[in-house]
Amino acid sequence: MSDSINAYHVPVLLHESIDGLDIRPSGTYVDVTFGGGGHSREILRRLGKDGHLFGFDQDGDSERNIPEGDGRFTFVRSNFRYLRNWMRYHGVESVDGVLADLGVSSHHFDDESRGFSFRFDSPLDMRMNKQASITAADVVNSYSEQQLADIFYLYGELRQSRRLAAAIVKARAVRPLLTTTQLVNTVTPLLPREREKKEVTKVFQALRIEVNHEMEALSEMLAAATDLLASGGRLSVITYHSLEDRIVKNMMKAGNVTGTIEQDFFGRTQAPLRPLSNKVITPGEEELNANPRSRSAKLRVAVKN
Question: Among the four 21, 22, 175, 181, which has the fewest Cβ within 10 Å?
Answer without folding.
Answer: 175
